Amino acid sequence: MSETLEPIIENEGLLKSDFVIEMVRQMRAIDPYGAYDSLSTTEILEPFVLTKEKKREIPIIGDPDELVIARVKVFYNAISAMIEAECGLMAVPLVNLTHEGFGRAIITVGKLVVMDRTLRDVHRFGFPSLSKMKDEADKILSVALELIGTHSKVAGL
Amino acid sequence: MSETLEPIIENEGLLKSDFVIEMVRQMRAIDPYGAYDSLSTTEILEPFVLTKEKKREIPIIGDPDELVIARVKVFYNAISAMIEAECGLMAVPLVNLTHEGFGRAIITVGKLVVMDRTLRDVHRFGFPSLSKMKDEADKILSVALELIGTHSKVAGL
User: A-chain residues within 8 Å CB-CB of B106?
Assistant: First the structure.
Protein backbone atom coordinates (compact mmCIF):
# COMPACT_ATOMS: atom_id res chain seq x y z
CA MET A 1 0.00 0.00 0.00
CA SER A 2 2.83 2.42 0.76
CA GLU A 3 3.67 2.32 -2.95
CA THR A 4 0.26 3.58 -4.01
CA LEU A 5 0.00 6.09 -1.19
CA GLU A 6 3.29 7.77 -1.92
CA PRO A 7 2.36 9.33 -5.30
CA ILE A 8 -0.90 10.65 -3.84
CA ILE A 9 0.99 12.70 -1.32
CA GLU A 10 3.63 14.05 -3.69
CA ASN A 11 1.05 14.89 -6.38
CA GLU A 12 -1.26 17.06 -4.29
CA GLY A 13 -0.82 20.10 -6.56
CA LEU A 14 -0.64 17.99 -9.70
CA LEU A 15 -4.07 16.50 -9.07
CA LYS A 16 -5.61 19.96 -9.20
CA SER A 17 -3.88 20.92 -12.46
CA ASP A 18 -6.01 21.61 -15.54
CA PHE A 19 -4.46 18.70 -17.37
CA VAL A 20 -5.28 16.10 -14.73
CA ILE A 21 -8.81 17.47 -14.34
CA GLU A 22 -9.25 17.20 -18.11
CA MET A 23 -7.84 13.64 -18.12
CA VAL A 24 -10.36 12.62 -15.48
CA ARG A 25 -13.16 14.27 -17.45
CA GLN A 26 -12.10 12.36 -20.58
CA MET A 27 -11.91 9.08 -18.66
CA ARG A 28 -15.38 9.64 -17.24
CA ALA A 29 -16.64 10.35 -20.76
CA ILE A 30 -15.80 6.78 -21.83
CA ASP A 31 -17.39 5.29 -18.74
CA PRO A 32 -21.07 5.00 -19.70
CA TYR A 33 -22.01 2.71 -16.80
CA GLY A 34 -20.50 4.88 -14.10
CA ALA A 35 -17.91 2.33 -13.00
CA TYR A 36 -15.55 5.19 -12.12
CA ASP A 37 -18.13 7.21 -10.21
CA SER A 38 -16.83 6.30 -6.80
CA LEU A 39 -13.14 6.34 -7.72
CA SER A 40 -10.70 9.09 -6.80
CA THR A 41 -8.61 10.96 -9.36
CA THR A 42 -5.55 8.86 -8.62
CA GLU A 43 -7.53 5.66 -8.98
CA ILE A 44 -9.05 6.71 -12.29
CA LEU A 45 -5.65 7.66 -13.71
CA GLU A 46 -3.87 4.68 -12.17
CA PRO A 47 -3.82 2.66 -15.46
CA PHE A 48 -1.74 5.44 -17.08
CA VAL A 49 1.06 4.92 -14.59
CA LEU A 50 3.39 2.19 -15.70
CA THR A 51 6.41 1.88 -13.45
CA LYS A 52 9.53 0.12 -14.67
CA GLU A 53 8.53 -2.97 -12.71
CA LYS A 54 5.03 -3.05 -14.19
CA LYS A 55 6.38 -2.45 -17.69
CA ARG A 56 8.78 -5.35 -17.34
CA GLU A 57 5.87 -7.69 -16.71
CA ILE A 58 4.22 -6.84 -20.04
CA PRO A 59 5.57 -8.83 -23.00
CA ILE A 60 7.60 -6.76 -25.47
CA ILE A 61 5.49 -7.90 -28.39
CA GLY A 62 1.74 -7.86 -28.02
CA ASP A 63 -1.50 -6.53 -29.45
CA PRO A 64 -3.10 -3.62 -27.60
CA ASP A 65 -6.57 -4.26 -26.27
CA GLU A 66 -9.44 -1.82 -26.56
CA LEU A 67 -8.85 -0.39 -23.09
CA VAL A 68 -5.27 0.65 -23.88
CA ILE A 69 -6.34 2.17 -27.19
CA ALA A 70 -9.10 4.08 -25.39
CA ARG A 71 -6.48 5.40 -22.93
CA VAL A 72 -4.19 6.55 -25.76
CA LYS A 73 -7.14 8.46 -27.21
CA VAL A 74 -8.00 9.92 -23.79
CA PHE A 75 -4.43 11.25 -23.49
CA TYR A 76 -4.47 12.99 -26.88
CA ASN A 77 -8.07 14.16 -26.42
CA ALA A 78 -7.08 15.82 -23.15
CA ILE A 79 -4.13 17.56 -24.82
CA SER A 80 -6.43 18.73 -27.63
CA ALA A 81 -8.86 20.13 -25.09
CA MET A 82 -5.97 21.98 -23.41
CA ILE A 83 -4.82 23.43 -26.74
CA GLU A 84 -8.38 24.50 -27.47
CA ALA A 85 -8.74 26.16 -24.08
CA GLU A 86 -5.48 28.06 -24.55
CA CYS A 87 -5.86 29.30 -28.12
CA GLY A 88 -9.63 29.37 -28.58
CA LEU A 89 -9.47 27.39 -31.83
CA MET A 90 -10.78 23.87 -32.29
CA ALA A 91 -8.10 21.20 -31.95
CA VAL A 92 -8.91 17.84 -33.53
CA PRO A 93 -7.02 14.71 -32.49
CA LEU A 94 -6.68 11.72 -34.79
CA VAL A 95 -5.22 8.43 -33.58
CA ASN A 96 -4.60 5.77 -36.16
CA LEU A 97 -3.37 2.36 -35.03
CA THR A 98 -2.85 -1.00 -36.63
CA HIS A 99 -4.04 -3.97 -34.62
CA GLU A 100 -0.38 -4.57 -33.76
CA GLY A 101 -0.18 -1.28 -31.88
CA PHE A 102 1.79 0.81 -34.35
CA GLY A 103 0.51 4.01 -35.81
CA ARG A 104 0.35 7.73 -35.70
CA ALA A 105 -1.30 10.36 -33.54
CA ILE A 106 -1.81 13.85 -34.84
CA ILE A 107 -3.60 16.95 -33.62
CA THR A 108 -4.71 19.58 -36.11
CA VAL A 109 -5.84 23.15 -35.53
CA GLY A 110 -7.36 24.57 -38.68
CA LYS A 111 -4.99 23.48 -41.43
CA LEU A 112 -2.03 23.33 -39.06
CA VAL A 113 -0.61 20.08 -37.71
CA VAL A 114 0.34 21.08 -34.17
CA MET A 115 1.40 17.58 -33.09
CA ASP A 116 2.54 14.58 -35.10
CA ARG A 117 3.77 11.46 -33.33
CA THR A 118 4.64 7.97 -34.33
CA LEU A 119 3.18 5.46 -31.91
CA ARG A 120 4.67 2.07 -31.28
CA ASP A 121 4.28 -0.70 -28.72
CA VAL A 122 0.96 0.80 -27.72
CA HIS A 123 0.15 -2.25 -25.59
CA ARG A 124 2.81 -0.85 -23.22
CA PHE A 125 1.42 2.71 -23.23
CA GLY A 126 2.00 4.45 -19.94
CA PHE A 127 4.17 6.86 -18.01
CA PRO A 128 6.58 6.35 -15.08
CA SER A 129 4.38 8.61 -12.94
CA LEU A 130 1.48 11.02 -13.18
CA SER A 131 3.83 13.97 -13.01
CA LYS A 132 5.88 12.53 -15.92
CA MET A 133 2.65 12.24 -17.87
CA LYS A 134 1.85 15.87 -17.18
CA ASP A 135 5.39 16.89 -18.22
CA GLU A 136 4.91 15.08 -21.51
CA ALA A 137 1.54 16.74 -22.09
CA ASP A 138 2.95 20.16 -21.18
CA LYS A 139 5.78 19.68 -23.64
CA ILE A 140 3.36 18.83 -26.47
CA LEU A 141 1.12 21.72 -25.42
CA SER A 142 3.86 24.32 -25.45
CA VAL A 143 5.21 23.18 -28.83
CA ALA A 144 1.67 23.26 -30.23
CA LEU A 145 0.93 26.73 -28.87
CA GLU A 146 4.21 28.06 -30.24
CA LEU A 147 3.36 26.65 -33.67
CA ILE A 148 -0.11 28.20 -33.52
CA GLY A 149 1.40 31.54 -32.52
CA THR A 150 3.92 31.50 -35.38
CA HIS A 151 1.47 30.29 -38.00
CA SER A 152 -1.77 31.73 -36.72
CA LYS A 153 -3.06 32.29 -40.26
CA VAL A 154 -2.89 28.59 -41.12
CA ALA A 155 -4.33 27.62 -37.74
CA GLY A 156 -7.25 29.93 -38.40
CA LEU A 157 -8.12 28.35 -41.77
CA MET B 1 -19.95 -6.62 -72.86
CA SER B 2 -20.80 -3.40 -74.69
CA GLU B 3 -21.18 -1.77 -71.28
CA THR B 4 -17.60 -2.54 -70.28
CA LEU B 5 -16.16 -1.74 -73.71
CA GLU B 6 -17.70 1.71 -73.90
CA PRO B 7 -15.66 3.35 -71.12
CA ILE B 8 -12.44 1.89 -72.58
CA ILE B 9 -13.00 3.73 -75.82
CA GLU B 10 -14.04 7.05 -74.34
CA ASN B 11 -11.21 7.00 -71.76
CA GLU B 12 -8.31 6.45 -74.14
CA GLY B 13 -6.51 9.64 -73.05
CA LEU B 14 -7.62 9.26 -69.44
CA LEU B 15 -5.97 5.85 -69.13
CA LYS B 16 -2.59 7.40 -69.93
CA SER B 17 -2.95 10.22 -67.39
CA ASP B 18 -0.53 10.41 -64.47
CA PHE B 19 -3.33 9.89 -61.98
CA VAL B 20 -4.62 6.66 -63.54
CA ILE B 21 -1.07 5.32 -63.92
CA GLU B 22 -0.47 6.06 -60.23
CA MET B 23 -3.77 4.41 -59.25
CA VAL B 24 -2.77 1.26 -61.10
CA ARG B 25 0.66 1.34 -59.46
CA GLN B 26 -0.97 1.65 -56.02
CA MET B 27 -3.38 -1.19 -56.78
CA ARG B 28 -0.50 -3.42 -57.90
CA ALA B 29 1.33 -2.54 -54.68
CA ILE B 30 -1.42 -4.21 -52.62
CA ASP B 31 -1.47 -7.29 -54.86
CA PRO B 32 1.30 -9.47 -53.42
CA TYR B 33 0.26 -12.63 -55.31
CA GLY B 34 0.12 -11.01 -58.73
CA ALA B 35 -3.59 -11.58 -59.25
CA TYR B 36 -3.74 -8.35 -61.27
CA ASP B 37 -0.70 -9.11 -63.42
CA SER B 38 -2.68 -10.06 -66.47
CA LEU B 39 -5.40 -7.44 -66.05
CA SER B 40 -5.69 -4.27 -68.08
CA THR B 41 -5.85 -0.79 -66.53
CA THR B 42 -9.63 -0.65 -66.91
CA GLU B 43 -10.04 -4.04 -65.32
CA ILE B 44 -7.82 -3.16 -62.36
CA LEU B 45 -9.69 0.07 -61.71
CA GLU B 46 -13.11 -1.44 -62.41
CA PRO B 47 -14.00 -1.80 -58.67
CA PHE B 48 -13.71 2.00 -58.28
CA VAL B 49 -16.49 2.55 -60.79
CA LEU B 50 -19.86 2.41 -59.14
CA THR B 51 -22.65 3.34 -61.50
CA LYS B 52 -26.01 4.40 -60.15
CA GLU B 53 -27.39 0.94 -60.87
CA LYS B 54 -24.54 -0.80 -59.05
CA LYS B 55 -24.81 1.59 -56.13
CA ARG B 56 -28.49 0.90 -55.79
CA GLU B 57 -27.79 -2.78 -55.29
CA ILE B 58 -25.58 -2.12 -52.24
CA PRO B 59 -27.52 -1.74 -48.98
CA ILE B 60 -27.52 1.79 -47.56
CA ILE B 61 -26.24 0.61 -44.21
CA GLY B 62 -23.34 -1.81 -44.13
CA ASP B 63 -19.86 -2.42 -42.83
CA PRO B 64 -17.02 -1.92 -45.31
CA ASP B 65 -14.90 -4.98 -45.97
CA GLU B 66 -11.11 -4.90 -46.14
CA LEU B 67 -11.10 -4.62 -49.91
CA VAL B 68 -13.14 -1.43 -49.93
CA ILE B 69 -10.97 0.09 -47.19
CA ALA B 70 -7.87 -0.84 -49.19
CA ARG B 71 -9.36 0.93 -52.21
CA VAL B 72 -10.09 4.07 -50.21
CA LYS B 73 -6.45 4.08 -49.11
CA VAL B 74 -5.27 3.49 -52.69
CA PHE B 75 -7.24 6.55 -53.82
CA TYR B 76 -5.74 8.86 -51.20
CA ASN B 77 -2.28 7.32 -51.58
CA ALA B 78 -2.40 8.07 -55.30
CA ILE B 79 -3.43 11.68 -54.64
CA SER B 80 -0.59 12.00 -52.11
CA ALA B 81 1.88 10.67 -54.66
CA MET B 82 0.60 13.25 -57.18
CA ILE B 83 0.98 16.07 -54.66
CA GLU B 84 4.49 14.87 -53.89
CA ALA B 85 5.41 14.73 -57.57
CA GLU B 86 4.09 18.26 -58.13
CA CYS B 87 5.58 20.07 -55.14
CA GLY B 88 8.60 17.94 -54.28
CA LEU B 89 7.63 17.67 -50.60
CA MET B 90 6.51 14.50 -48.88
CA ALA B 91 2.74 14.13 -48.66
CA VAL B 92 1.46 11.73 -46.01
CA PRO B 93 -2.05 10.32 -46.19
CA LEU B 94 -3.91 9.14 -43.09
CA VAL B 95 -7.21 7.31 -43.35
CA ASN B 96 -9.05 6.63 -40.14
CA LEU B 97 -12.25 4.59 -40.24
CA THR B 98 -14.52 3.01 -37.71
CA HIS B 99 -15.69 -0.50 -38.51
CA GLU B 100 -18.98 1.07 -39.54
CA GLY B 101 -17.33 2.94 -42.40
CA PHE B 102 -17.29 6.44 -40.98
CA GLY B 103 -14.14 8.43 -40.48
CA ARG B 104 -11.71 10.95 -41.76
CA ALA B 105 -9.06 11.10 -44.44
CA ILE B 106 -6.36 13.70 -44.29
CA ILE B 107 -3.18 14.42 -46.23
CA THR B 108 -0.40 16.42 -44.62
CA VAL B 109 2.62 18.09 -46.19
CA GLY B 110 5.06 19.17 -43.53
CA LYS B 111 2.85 20.75 -40.87
CA LEU B 112 0.18 21.72 -43.38
CA VAL B 113 -3.09 19.84 -43.76
CA VAL B 114 -3.63 19.99 -47.51
CA MET B 115 -6.74 17.80 -47.53
CA ASP B 116 -9.25 17.00 -44.81
CA ARG B 117 -12.34 14.97 -45.60
CA THR B 118 -15.05 13.33 -43.63
CA LEU B 119 -15.77 9.85 -44.92
CA ARG B 120 -19.11 8.15 -44.60
CA ASP B 121 -20.82 5.10 -46.08
CA VAL B 122 -17.42 3.80 -47.10
CA HIS B 123 -18.93 0.42 -48.03
CA ARG B 124 -20.41 2.29 -51.03
CA PHE B 125 -17.13 3.99 -51.99
CA GLY B 126 -16.87 4.53 -55.72
CA PHE B 127 -17.31 6.98 -58.57
CA PRO B 128 -19.82 7.15 -61.43
CA SER B 129 -16.96 6.72 -63.92
CA LEU B 130 -13.18 6.73 -64.13
CA SER B 131 -13.20 10.24 -65.51
CA LYS B 132 -15.33 11.42 -62.56
CA MET B 133 -12.78 9.83 -60.25
CA LYS B 134 -10.00 11.72 -61.97
CA ASP B 135 -11.99 14.98 -61.74
CA GLU B 136 -12.37 14.44 -58.01
CA ALA B 137 -8.65 13.73 -57.60
CA ASP B 138 -7.72 16.74 -59.74
CA LYS B 139 -9.92 18.97 -57.60
CA ILE B 140 -8.25 17.77 -54.39
CA LEU B 141 -4.84 18.11 -56.03
CA SER B 142 -5.36 21.69 -57.17
CA VAL B 143 -6.71 22.79 -53.78
CA ALA B 144 -3.74 21.10 -52.09
CA LEU B 145 -1.18 22.69 -54.39
CA GLU B 146 -2.74 26.11 -53.92
CA LEU B 147 -2.56 25.69 -50.14
CA ILE B 148 1.08 24.60 -50.38
CA GLY B 149 1.85 27.61 -52.57
CA THR B 150 0.22 30.05 -50.16
CA HIS B 151 1.67 28.49 -47.01
CA SER B 152 4.95 27.12 -48.32
CA LYS B 153 6.69 27.86 -45.02
CA VAL B 154 4.36 25.61 -43.03
CA ALA B 155 4.49 22.93 -45.75
CA GLY B 156 8.27 22.96 -45.51
CA LEU B 157 8.33 22.40 -41.73
Answer: 94, 106, 108
Angle formed at CA A145 by CA A10 and CA A103, multiple of 5 degrees:
80
Give A31-51 pLDDT, tens digit per residue. 889 889 899 888 999 999 998
pLDDT digit string, tens, across residues A67-84? 899 999 999 999 999 999
Of B94, B112, B113, the CB nearest to A104: B94
Question: B102 CA to chain A: closest CA distance, Å?
Answer: 13
Which residue from B125, B71, B73 is spatially nearest to B95, judged by alpha carbons?
A: B73
Hey, what's the torsion of the CAs at A111, A114, A118, A124, to 10 degrees?
-130
Q: How far is CA B70 from CA A117, A147, B95, in A?
A: 23, 34, 10
Tell me the pTM.
0.85
Q: How far apart are CA B17 and CA B29, in angstroms?
A: 19
Spell out the domains of chain A, with CATH numbers in brackets. Answer: 11-155 (1.10.3100.20)
- Looking at the DSSP bridge assignments, the partners of residue B108 are B92, B113
CA distances from A117 to A93, B93, B136 (A): 11, 14, 30
A 10 A CB-CB count for A139 gives 10
Q: For residue A35, is it left (φ>0), alpha (ψ between -120 and 50) or beta?
A: alpha
